[in-house]
Amino acid sequence: MSPSSFTSNSSLTHLFPILNVLHGFTTCPTLALTNVANVSLSDNALGIHKNTGHLTHNVVNPPMPIALCGNEPPPQVAWEAFYPKGSISPQTEKPGGLGFYLSGPSDFARALENGASEALFSYKVMFQPDWEWVKGGKLPGMYGGVGDLAYKCSGGRQDDRCKCFNLRLMWRASGKGEIYAYMPLNNINTKQLLAVPPKSVLNNDYGISVGKGPYTLSTGLWITIAQRVKLNTPGKTDGAHIIIAIHYSVQAEFVIGEVQLWMNGSCVLHVVGLVMREDAASHIKGMHFQTFFGGHSIDWASPKDQRAWFADVSGAIMH
């Protein structure tokens, strides 16, 4: 296939901030991109599975944003996430938000399982105008690993962490954002992730808060989030060799792992030199499409009934 190209230069391109797309999909009906299929915002079309049974993700007509992005029409259909007053994580008595795994259309999912080493997923989110952030909460991000071990690579899991990764996002107080990373536990990953500015923190028994505050989320507006993962060559974990290859732009015999994040088309976080996998059977699986308030204790809970909407879900396998 030839590299992809847009038919227009609208801000819709924020869904695909890198254009070297071999194969992709989008639920944005107004986006025309070579090698990218237009699909519906539905469970069957997007390969949704392992839905958190007591949570819903109804397809609705979302409210109008408080302002438009240029001449771009806002999404007309979206998943609605409902966070009732007092709700926190899905494991508590009063959960909120939504939660499932998304692998994309069947041909896209097969391409991931067949060993695609670089992929991008994106979506738009809008929080109601009077949204209250409290202490923080989770947002969707990419995940992967070896077979079923890729699932539940979060929530404080320590076992088999070398065989999975989970890169959900997180909002903190005042809408400050980060990547909440669960990755193979080794010194290379810890060093690289904790070096990300403006601040990164190792949470005991949980993941690493990567780059606390490189972006701030807004309310009442559609925000476009795109996340890219590039897998490393398994078994290549020599940190010094990796750093030399990066610094001198040497064409190494192996590939280093990367994680990259965009907000509204601007790159806000880019980490290289990561060990995304230690096993060749570890693959990019798709998105852990999960959102909730928390934390697990009541001081993280939503202070009132709140809603957020998710639309224009997209994915790409890169060159």
UniProtKB/TrEMBL annotation:
State the superkingdom: Eukaryota
GO MF entry, a single one: lyase activity
Gene3D superfamilies, per database record: 2.60.120.200
Q: Write down the InterPro entries for this protein, in alphabetical order.
A: Polysacc_lyase_14
Keyword Lyase listed? The answer is yes
Cite the Polysaccharide lyase domain residue spans from the record: 79-313
Task: List the keywords (alphabetical).
Answer: Lyase
Q: What is this protein called?
A: Polysaccharide lyase family 14 protein
- Organism source for this protein? Serpula lacrymans var. lacrymans (strain S7.3)
